[in-house]
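Dear all,

This email documents one entry for the complex benchmark we are building for the journal club exercise. For each entry we list the sequence lines for every component of the assembly. Then comes the predicted three-dimensional structure of the complex as a token string, followed by one or two observations. Please use this as the template for your own entries, and keep the labels exactly as they appear.
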Amino acid sequence: MSERADTAEDNGGVIAFPPERPLHLDSGGALAGLEIAYRTFGTLNADRSNAILVCHALTLDQHVSGRHPLTGKPGWWGPMVGPGLPLDPDRHFIICSNVVGGCMGSTGPSSINPATGEPWGLAFPVITVPDMVRAQAMLVEALGIDRLFAVVGGSMGGMQVLQWAVEYPERIFAAVCIAAAARHSAQNIAFHEVGRQAIMADPDWRGGAYAKEGLRPGKGLAVARMAAHITYLSEAALQRKFGRELQRDGLSWGFDADFQVESYLRHQGATFVDRFDANSYLYITRAMDYFDLAGGETLAGAFARAKDVRFCVFSFTSDWLYPTIESQTIVRALNAAGARTSFVEIDSDKGHDAFLLDEPVLRAALGGFLESAALVWDAR
Amino acid sequence: MSASRPDFEEILRLVRPGSRVLDVGCGEGELLELLVRRNGVDGRGVEISPEGVSACLARGLAVMQGDADRDLDYFPAGAFDYVILSQTLQAVLRPRHVLGELMRIGERAIVSLPNFGHWGVRLDLLLHGRMPVTASLPQPWWATANIHLCTMADFTGLCDDLALGVDACAIFAGGRPARPANPKHPLENLRAEAALFLLSRRPASNP
């Protein structure tokens, strides 16, 4: 990895799998020469039993802690990862990898297609959440870990956690699913479609081949981000933060960003395009839309294989992207399957993004859950 | 660790060590923690308040936020050896449904209730003509969560209707330890401030 590690125990890099070990994809094909960028914090103990895999959300990456090499900002889960926090590098070996299809070092649409020597663009195969999880499993195996103590994730990361539990129940002990759903709703798909259409309507998108021409569909990607960002907040949070406050005295009687909320969203869009690839946005949102854990069967049936995994599920009262009913559906199915399940709906007006913020109830409950799971895990 | 409440002591005495237990309405998990530590049970809880659930998780218990009226339906039949409903049945919307669900998902149920048939309650109502406010029923009628109060006789009547056997019954009064009692004896219905029942599906002869 190019950036200097913050501490001696902040490691990682890019693992390249040999062509004879391709990633088999749900779409039927295979991805040869898979590369997965990852970062680890803490030390793997002698019996390799203290590993926790953190799964990231749509536009996040492997930089869960430490410093982000592109933005220079602290890792995205500061309130939960660090000494004395629920995910503690002094005790745990914390792994976080960029999903396949992403743009932070793992193989994705902006990677070079070995067949053409040019960026994949839309020739990149459609990937799914199970594909992401299979790639993570390859990484975990390559790190010499047979069984993870826990898999933890929020939003799309929570979907990966559920997929882990169903696909590799014998390779995880505990699972923490935060602000997620077992399948994408019509509203989820609808919002994603707005974002994708914004990107594809940008003339600089060039049918996905913008990289070849040295272009970036920045305007389209920014609009996609702006629309999506609204869904991560809540009406109450927006109102409290901005109300109808103006940027400067008086109205412009035009279409400048008169309101602070407009300026805020424009800023969100503008900074996003500096760190994210438009085609990755298309591929990852597609993967989320395709996600349906139960497939043809019942959700309880899907969880039957995961009944020995210890689950903890969290939702937030003001999350309208993955509202509490989605978590309740998961929890009821887990109970029906006989899995040991904890669930709490946390009172917050901060919307979906509450899972990234310092929510004391989340911190205490997640800490308690992992603590008690560790007692059983260590005594096994 | 000692149980502060006499009804907790009685529940700890009744629950077989190592069994699977679901505590419905587990609050902040005091009883569940005692059951796990002292009886070594595989314990889980259901609690309606997020503060209660968070407190349970922070003390390492497996608890889900949920509602006795609605969320028991999703557990499979026979999932637990004991389902505990401590001082909660009188606060649910559909006590008959909930009791039926307890006995579907558990081999046995342990139910404790404030007894509206207690002499103090009866006397209070007789003398004042108002809904009684007593030690075990401390709230006025308009503030109480107890929307389905009943007497021991009412409860054993419902158990008969549902073909449930009372395998054990204990009554509580004056802060004293639990005392075994005949659940259908009219005098016990006068003496008990609260009562606790161990129920099973197969009809058993009353103790």
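Observations: The radius of gyration of chain A is 20 Å. The interface with chain B takes residues 310, 312-313, 331-333, 335-336, 338, 340-347, 361, 364-369, 371-372, 375 of chain A (CB under 8 Å).
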